[in-house]
């Protein structure tokens, strides 16, 4: 059950559940969670990618521990709006999380164009972070940026 319309996610969760935002990269998966009202995204960490089974077990444990009811995955769409190999990789990860790892949560995708570069610019300009420190936080911050964009869209949709 993935490629759910993002606006349908709130209706698929109960009032106690939250959303997790994922920024899947080749080396890490950045993570952020929403509050129960779907208004604020908070970065929570990264999973250092190793073997799929171990990564999926770690994600599954986090989802259970934090009462997650749905997943929003950043989709790295090309600047011209087309989907390339990186998008296919994210879609395959979503398929595998559900079919192989048994994570039975609805998954929606959110266009993550420019999320990492926007976060990098902020960390350099506003937060004045060193390169080493930025590398430690950029993935989870990008996940929060992705999730916050999706939450803002959901909130705008709910007010219509």
TrEMBL record:
Coiled coil stretches, renumbered: none
Record-annotated YqgF/RNase H-like domain positions: 17-119
UniProt keyword list: Cytoplasm, Hydrolase, Nuclease, Ribosome biogenesis
Record family assignment: Belongs to the YqgF HJR family.
CDD domains noted in UniProt: YqgF
Subcellular location: Cytoplasm
EC number: 3.1.-.-
Protein name: Putative pre-16S rRNA nuclease
SUPFAM superfamilies in the record: Ribonuclease H-like (SSF53098)
Alphabetized Gene3D superfamilies for the sequence: YqgF/RNase H-like domain
Protein origin, superkingdom: Bacteria
Function: Could be a nuclease involved in processing of the 5'-end of pre-16S rRNA.
PANTHER family assigned: POLYNUCLEOTIDYL TRANSFERASE, RIBONUCLEASE H-LIKE SUPERFAMILY PROTEIN (PTHR33317:SF4)
């Amino acid at each position: 059950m993935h490629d759910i319309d993002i606006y349908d996610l709130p209706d698929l969760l109960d009032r106690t559940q939250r959303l997790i935002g994922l920024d899947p990269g080749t080396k890490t998966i950045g993570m952020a969670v929403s509050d129960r009202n779907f208004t604020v995204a908070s970065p929570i960490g990264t999973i250092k990618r190793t073997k799929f089974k171990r990564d999926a077990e770690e994600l599954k444990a986090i989802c259970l521990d934090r009462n997650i009811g749905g997943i929003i995955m950043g989709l790295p769409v090309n600047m011209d709006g087309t989907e390339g190999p990186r998008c296919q990789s994210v879609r395959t990860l979503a398929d595998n999380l559900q079919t192989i790892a048994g994570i039975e949560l609805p998954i929606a995708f959110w266009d993550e164009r420019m999320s990492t570069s926007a976060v990098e610019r902020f960390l350099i300009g506003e937060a004045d972070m060193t390169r080493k420190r930025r590398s430690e936080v950029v993935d989870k911050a990008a996940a929060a940026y992705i999730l916050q964009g999706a939450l803002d869209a959901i909130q705008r949709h709910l007010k219509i």
